[in-house]
Design a protein that fits this description.
Layout lengths: L3 E7 L6 H9 L6 E8 L4 H9 L5 E6 L3 H11 L5 E4 L5 E2 L3 H11 L3 E12 L4 E2 L20 E3 H7 L11 H11 L3 E14 L1 H8 L2 H13 L1 H13 L9 H16 L3
Parallel strand pairs: 1-2, 1-4, 2-3, 6-9
Antiparallel strand pairs: 4-8, 5-9, 6-7, 6-8
Helix pairs in contact: 8-10, 9-10
């Protein structure tokens, strides 16, 4: 059985699949399978592309549309690998990423996931150096790329991606639960992920008004976790995240409302 399963959700992204699948096939680490999940694509060109793959390393699964979390979960349920690599259909990894990520996971059992620095391309260009780390780094903000290599046992233990989260930040909530179980996220300090900015991704980025609702949902879901962390922060006088004060104030405001309202 392959050690790594590469999960590529696809919804009408057929025009980019040669890039994402190509970056997977060119990895220096070769003990892997590729699972492309067709999340109910309606674009005929995408459907034709999905039916064109004819390689024993590549499986294509078809399902009704359920959004990103649902597609990832479906692929992972069918995965044979001990380690899971999530890769969006329009993104690309450097050919050394899996080799370097597997080495970290095999060397350090406290690491649940491995990601890296990111550079964007397409309609907008920028770079990002996520911090990774433990739970405290994920309470107020996202500190890992969505595309990452993680232990399948982590996914099993925390129950997969939250399929109720259909408007974004499902990866942040996933990492929050993963780190709350004691695992760390290791960041390779290299730009090994190329993130494509398309009209679709820009639309999601511009939908920031939804962020407050998503944060409220996360705090409602993880009420006890946030309460415990808030108490600890108050005791240690480390409530405010000086790097991101607006996010912290929003969190505290909503947390106060959630914890003091009548159920």
């Amino acid at each position: 059985m392959p050690l790594v399963s590469i999960i590529i959700p696809c919804y009408n992204d057929g025009q980019y699949l040669d890039d994402s699948v190509g970056s997977a096939m060119q990895q220096t680490f070769t003990d892997f399978e590729i699972i492309i999940v067709n999340d109910g694509s309606t674009d005929e060109a995408t459907v034709r592309k999905l039916h064109s793959f004819n390689d024993p390393l590549i499986s294509v699964l078809h399902k009704t549309n359920g959004h990103l979390s649902s597609a990832r979960n479906h692929g992972i349920r069918n995965a044979k690998g001990k380690f899971i690599l999530t890769l969006d259909a329009d993104d690309k990894f450097d050919k050394t990423f899996i080799e370097k990520g597997v080495a970290i996971l095999q060397r350090d059992s406290s690491v649940g996931a491995v990601t890296c620095y990111l550079r964007s391309f397409g309609l907008k260009r920028y770079s990002w150096k996520p911090l990774g780390g433990d739970l405290k780094n994920f309470l107020y903000r996202q500190e890992s790329c969505a595309s990452a290599l993680f232990r399948k046992e982590c996914w099993d233990k925390i129950g997969g991606y939250d399929e109720k989260m259909k408007t974004g930040y499902e990866d942040w909530e996933f990492w929050l639960r993963l780190t709350s179980e004691g695992w760390k996220i290791h960041v390779l300090k290299e730009y090994l992920l190329q993130y494509r900015v398309t009209e679709k991704s820009m639309f999601l980025t511009q939908a920031e008004p939804q962020r407050e609702k998503i944060v409220e949902y996360m705090m409602e879901k993880h009420r006890q976790l946030y309460w415990d962390q808030l108490k600890d922060a108050v005791i240690k006088r480390k409530v405010i995240d000086l790097r991101n004060p607006e996010s912290t104030v929003l969190l505290l405001k909503n947390l106060y409302w959630k914890l003091t309202r009548k159920k």
